[in-house]
Amino acid sequence: MTSLLLLALAGLVGQLVDGALGMAFGITTSTVLLASGIAPAAASQVVHLAELGTTLASGTAHWRFRNVDWRTVGLLAAPGAIGGFTGAVLLSSLSAEAARPVISTILVGLGLLVLLRFARPRAPRAHRRIAAGALTPLGLGAGFLDAMGGGGWGPMGTSTLLASGRMEPRKVIGSVSASEFIVTLGASAGFLVGLGGAGINLAWVGALLAGGVVAAPLAAWTVRHLAAPVLGSAVGGLIVMTNAGALLDVVGLTGGTRLVLYGVVIVAWIAAVAAAIRVARDAAPAVSETEPAMTTAPAEAAWSDSFDDELAQLADEDRRRTRRPVAAGR
C-alpha cells in the first residue's frame, strides 16, 4: 500500500510539473521510480503505459483549443514512434545493473536541459515554418531518449522548438503534446516486445494515472501563482541531484571529492533558480501591461479560468459554420 501511495504521489508531482511546464512528467516520475529501487526497464514501461492516458487527454485538449500544427505533428510523431520503439527494445535488453548508470546519465542530461531552458531569457524571433529535415531527426532522437530515460520527449522536443523561435509557444506545446501519444504507443509496443506483458504491474500504472488526474487542477493553480521559469529550474535541479549519485558511483568517486561535487551542483542549482527568478521578474511588467490577469509564462498559462470562455466561443463558431448551409438553402 505504501508503494502505491508513493507511485500516486509520483504521478501527482509529475503531472503537476508537466501541467505547469508542458514537459517533465516522464523524467519526474521515472526519477521517483528509480529512487524507489524499480528496475530501469520496468520503470520506463510503467511510465509509458500511464502516459497512454495522460498524453491522449493532453493532445485532445490542445486539439480542441486549436493549439496544434498538424504538419509538425506528422513530422514528429512517426519518427518519434520509431525512436521510441527502438529505445524500448534496447533498454529491455540491458540488465538492471548496466541500465541504471545509462538511464541516470540520460536523466541528468535532461535535467540540465530543463534547468537551462528556464534559467535564461530568450530573444523573440520571427515565426517561420520549420524544415522537415529538422523535425524528423528531432522526433527520432527525442523518441529514443524518451523510451531509454522514461521521459524526454517534452524536454528535448519542446525546448528545441521553443529555442528555434519559429513557432508560437502555444503551437509548440500543443504539437509536441499531440504527437506524444503516438510516440508513447511506439515505446509501449517496444516494451511489450522486449519485456512481454506478463510482468506489467497494473496497480503501478493505475497509481500513476490516479495521481496525474488529481494533479490536473492543481497544475492550473500552479500556473497562475508560480512563474514557470522558477518551477522549471527547481525541478531540473532536483532531477540532476537525484540522478547524479549513480553517475558518481560509476566513476568511483567517494568521500570528500563526492561531497565537493555535490556542493558545486547545489551552488549551480541555486544560481540557476536565482537567474530564473530574475527572468520571471523582468517578464512580469510586459505581461501585466498586455494581460494583467496572466502573471506566468505564456504557453503554460493556457490552463486558466479563461479556458471556459474560449471553449464556449469555439463552440459558437462551430455552430455558426454548421448553420450557414441551411440558411443558404432557404
Automatic annotation (TrEMBL):
Transmembrane segments: 73-92, 98-118, 130-153, 173-195, 202-220, 226-247, 259-280
Protein's cellular compartments: Cell membrane; Membrane
Alphabetized UniProt keyword annotations: Cell membrane, Membrane, Transmembrane, Transmembrane helix
Membrane topology: Multi-pass membrane protein
Domain of life of the source: Bacteria
Pfam families: TauE
Record GO cellular component, one term: plasma membrane
Similarity comment text for this entry: Belongs to the 4-toluene sulfonate uptake permease (TSUP) (TC 2.A.102) family.
Protein name, per record: Probable membrane transporter protein
Taxonomic path: Bacteria, Bacillati, Actinomycetota, Thermoleophilia, Solirubrobacterales
